[in-house]
Amino acid sequence: MAANDKNYWTQQRDDGRWETIKEGSERASKTFDRQSDSWAYSKDLAQKSKGEAFLKGMDGKIRERNTYGHDPVSSKG
Hints:
- The protein has one helix spanning 35-49, and strands at residues 8-12, 18-22, 30-32, 52-56, 62-67.
- By secondary structure, the chain is α+β, with helices and mostly antiparallel strands.
- It has one domain (8-66).
- β2 and β3 form a beta hairpin.
- It is globular, with a radius of gyration of 13 Å.
């Protein structure tokens, strides 16, 4: 699957800090001491790019995701 440069990931680094990283990038956009700060930053960047923000848990699984821009599922309301 190809990387989407509109998406941002929040994940924990080996040193215990949290990083926001653009999908497909090798380097973090920014690092944080707290998960909540990194997650807020990822959501902000994803919203600006009309992409998605993903929060990866320590087990490597996606814990939460937010979609901005085009949502492929239409809903009433």
